[in-house]
Amino acid sequence: MARPATISRLRSCLTASRAETSVWIPACRRPNWHNKRPYSIQSQEEELAKLPNINPDALSITKTTTPKALVPPEELVFGRTFTDHMLSVEWTASQGWLPPRITPYQNLSLDPATCVFHYAFEAFEGMKAYKNPRNEVRLFRPDRNMRRLNRSVERIALPTFDGEAFTDLISRFVRLEDKFIPSSRGYSLYLRPTMIGTQRTLGVGPPGSALLYLIASPVGPYYPTGFRAVSLAATSTAVRAWPGGVGDRKLGANYAPCIVPQLEAAKRGYHQNLWLFGEEEIVTEVGTMNFFACVREKGTGRKMLWTAPLDGTILEGVTRESVLELARERLGKEEGWVIEEKDFTMRELAEAADEGRLMEAFGTGTAAVVSPVRMINWRGRDLQCGLKDGEEAGEVAARMKEWIEEIMYGDVEHRWSVKI
């Protein structure tokens, strides 16, 4: 399918605007006259690259003297309970990354003029540590989280870091907090790496200091009593991301503006928004998750799995990537499915639903792994997404969740599962 006109027009305008101003042109592509300046962003980046990177061997650990009591697993609420300690690494433009520290969990002390409060210099990740009945603790594809966090912080002028070194620190931290990791299936230790700009200034510019820190929260299964399919409100009046923006980066600033549309959807009886873009109402993401649709091709009946392409507006979800790889390997090669990363519109999805060709739909993310969709409200009517009465998940969603969790908990040996 040809790319919809709205996307093409916007990208043409964006390209033209970048050609007219040097602000948007990377230093390496600017005209030669820029090289005559005594100062440039490029030379600053070169100098910063020479500074010390994160050194796990310099880690210091100060253990808490007031350990917390464990909350019974059945009483855990997502993001409300935290472990005894936190990991932090400071950075300055003059010294680079300073020695990492594990300390008792505590408040941060920041000046009211700290740049993160005023200009949203903040990026984060979501990942988990899993414990199986053999008492093995594993991380799931941590290299992908580190790569994405580096892309996120780079986009907002925060310092990048050695992802392998920070993963080493995360592993040491998780081992220290081992008692907080539930061993029952569906439970895990949620890990939240975060970076903020910490320079005390009201001036707008690259922060001269930053803090990379990690906190952890034991969590239970997203669906404690089993799958619960959600209902969505197709939303085009509010836009989550746009070409040339930062929708593909995991920035805190991307999330707060989505809350009001979500509340509006909830007032109408729907759990989340299905974000549409442009005049053609292109399907992008669902809530804070990537979106997948299983559709039978018109005429041939071929089974197809659709998800939006990584065009700069879609977050590079770790679960999204995993679903695509497993789908190509197990559904595509073995069962003849067509796996496509493509633009598709809400009208195409509605047509498939009306004709009985929409087999199922689901969202994917770290928290739920897979979240099945029952219906989508669009233009005043509820479109059914292939689930039968009393059914909470389609076959593909259920299989994906099973396949991925087998890897997460080490039931099967796989390169994505990192034992620590």
Structural descriptors:
alpha+beta, globular, single chain, ten-stranded mixed sheet, 420 residues, 9 helices
Overall shape: it is globular
C-alpha end-to-end distance: 45 Å
Total strands = 19
- Average pLDDT confidence is 91
Number of helix segments? 9
Q: What's the alpha carbon Rg, rounded to whole Å?
A: 23 Å
The biggest beta sheet, please?
A: 10 strands, mixed
| Low-confidence residue ranges | 5-40
Q: What sequence of helices (H) and strands (E) makes up the elements?
A: HHEEEEHEEEHHEEEHEEEEHEHEEEHE
Structural class: alpha+beta
Helical percent range?
25-40%
Note the beta-strand portion. 25-35%
How does this model look, in words?
The chain has 420 residues and is an alpha+beta fold. 26% of the residues lie in helices and 26% in strands. It has nine helices and 19 strands. The longest helix is centred in the C-terminal third of the chain and has 18 residues, at 318-335. The radius of gyration is 23 Å and the shape is globular.
